[in-house]
Design brief:
Strand order of the largest sheet of chain A: 5-6-7-3-8-9
Largest sheet of chain B: none
Number of domains of chain B: 1
Strand content of chain A: 15-25%
Number of strands of chain B: 0
CATH superfamily of chain B: MetI-like
Shape of chain A: globular
CATH topology of chain B: MetI-like fold
Order of helices and strands of chain A: EEEHEEHHHEHEHEE
CATH class of chain A: Alpha Beta
Helix content of chain B: over 70%
CATH superfamily of chain A: P-loop containing nucleotide triphosphate hydrolases
Oligomer: heterodimer
Shape of chain B: extended
Helix content of chain A: 25-40%
Structural class of chain A: alpha/beta
Structural class of chain B: mainly alpha
Radius of gyration of chain B: 26 Å
Number of domains of chain A: 1
Radius of gyration of chain A: 18 Å
Chain lengths: 228, 279
């Protein structure tokens, strides 16, 4: 079997914030079809690393290398969700697909096939009964699932998720992670996800990147279930 | 070691006298001084009139209201409400476009200041003056009322809209941009849904305000119930008709105030939603 191709490669990257190194000499590659967990205590730099990988932030040292041309499509599930509060759940989800259409096409609504996809996603994450409700009226956990649906509808190849299940009970957390894993890996995409719960980390990950708060250089890369 | 009370009093007496005044105190003193200074210029006719007697005689002519003109009054009120509805709709459309030019986070600087100046100028002119101008141009009819109130409302609504755009949470807009949306799409699906409920609250308020304004602009010929007020005020022995018109306006405005307030409150509450849980 051929080696899985690489979507993104981090080469010796390091980040220094306010006179402190969060991590240094970080090197790893993200293969296609992988679920990579990013873990470590709060404040260790997980969000910053995700922002570097999504090219929202520049590393202090090192570089990112992308062997594919054109570069794979990226998307981020934000920790603070960033939803449109006064829009319905369905509209919030559908707005994930905006990049595929021109402004004129979406001026008066979305194509029927996107609506169907949006409704399927909402149903998978248990929000089908709330599709017409404003995002502002949903609970924190429901809002988190809504933000996930929105990002999934943008069909990214590289999905970065910043603690996407932090507000969910364990049942919904497992179900949501399974949906993320399934929708990303079956089309050859990958997901890099910061997680706190060790059980979830062990259950879903192909690779685990652990950051160390006491020594920025002694991060670890584990391969419990590598992609063959 | 703590200071004794007399130490503190001593210290305070040594502070300069003007240190006790802040902006609030100074402006209040200036206001009070000017108002008292203006008193001598306010004069009555100089004749020895029986003020209270005049008032009671005048008010007694208001009662009982003349219910025979109810139908005519209601149709005048209907015209007033129609003027307010059409002018508010036109003002909303115009204000939306103009407010984009007056919002710091949407418009470039070269557009921002001229637009704001224009809005300031529009706001300087009172609704009755807009009505006079419109009557001169299109004649004495309800179209004049619509034109007058549209211009008058744009001055306020466009300012409210632009302030709303400036204070709206922009995170959803930037999230959509990061997911590949264009600027117009990010505005339509990211910023607009967050601003829309507040904007609609402002529109409802403007509609209420315009129904009140539309009741008076008829006085200068711009259509609606104001014309009835003028006619009854100027003809002899018609104060009981005048009072019926006032009564009808009062009922409509009160109902509107009450409903508008309820709707605005419900919208705000829905948008704030589970804000407590979000943070």
């Amino acid at each position: 079997m051929s080696r899985p191709s690489t979507l993104l490669e981090a080469r010796n990257i390091g980040l220094r914030l306010e006179e402190r190194w969060l991590f240094r000499n970080l090197s790893f590659s993200i293969p296609t079809g992988a679920f990579i967990s990013l873990t470590g205590p709060s404040g260790v730099g997980k969000t910053s690393l995700l922002r570097i990988l999504s090219r929202e932030l520049s590393p202090t040292e090192g570089e990112l290398f992308c062997p594919l041309d054109p570069a794979p499509k990226k998307a981020m599930i934000f920790q603070d969700l960033q939803l449109a509060e006064g829009a319905s759940s369905l509209t919030n989800v559908l707005s994930g697909s905006l990049g595929k259409y021109s402004s004129i096409k979406t001026l008066f609504g979305f194509p029927q096939k996107e609506k169907e996809r949006g409704l399927i996603l909402l149903r998978e994450l248990g929000l089908e009964m709330k599709s017409n409700q404003w995002a502002s009226t949903l609970s924190r956990g429901e809002r988190q699932r809504l933000a996930i649906c929105r990002t999934l509808l943008s069909h990214p190849t590289l999905l970065f998720a910043d603690e996407p299940v932090a507000s969910l009970d364990s049942e919904w957390a497992d179900k949501t992670l399974a949906t993320l894993l399934d929708s990303q890996t079956k089309k050859g995409g990958s997901i890099i996800c910061s997680l706190h719960d060790e059980l979830q980390v062990q259950q879903f990950s192909n690779y685990i990147l652990r950051l160390n708060p006491s020594d920025p250089s002694s991060w670890s890369w584990e391969e419990p279930n590598p992609i063959s | 070691m703590g200071r004794t009370q007399s130490d503190l009093l001593d210290m305070e007496s040594k502070m300069p006298w003007h240190s006790r005044f802040d902006l609030l105190g100074i402006t209040f003193l200036v206001f009070l001084g000017s108002a008292l200074g203006a008193l001598p210029s306010i004069e009555g006719s100089g004749r020895d009139l029986d003020y209270l007697g005049n008032l009671s005689r005048f008010l007694s002519q208001f009662f009982p209201p003349d219910w025979s003109i109810l139908d005519r009054t209601l149709s005048g009120l209907l015209e007033t409400i129609q003027i307010a509805l059409v002018s508010t709709l036109l003002a909303i459309l115009l204000s939306f476009l103009i407010s984009l030019g007056a919002s710091r986070n949407v418009a470039p600087l070269w557009l921002l200041w001229p637009t704001r100046m224009l809005l300031n100028m529009i706001r300087t002119i009172p609704s009755l003056l807009w009505a006079l101008i419109a009557v001169v141009i299109v004649g004495s009819n309800s179209l004049a009322g619509v034109i007058a109130l549209t211009f008058y409302s744009v001055g306020y609504l466009a300012k409210f809209f632009s302030e709303t755009f400036e204070s709206t949470d922009l995170s959803a807009q930037s999230a959509l941009k990061s997911l590949g949306a264009g600027p117009l799409q990010a505005f339509q699906y990211g910023l607009w849904p967050n601003a829309r409920p507040i904007i609609w609250s402002h529109c409802l308020w403007m509609l209420e305000y315009n129904i009140r304004s539309a009741s008076i602009i008829g006085y200068v010929g711009a259509g609606g119930i104001g014309l009835h007020l003028k006619l009854y005020a100027e003809s002899a022995e018609s104060w009981n008709k005048f009072s019926l018109v006032l009564l009808c306006i009062l009922v409509v405005v009160t109902l509107l105030d009450f409903t508008g307030e309820k709707i605005r409150h419900a919208i705000r509450k829905k948008l704030d939603g589970v804000a407590a849980q979000k943070h």
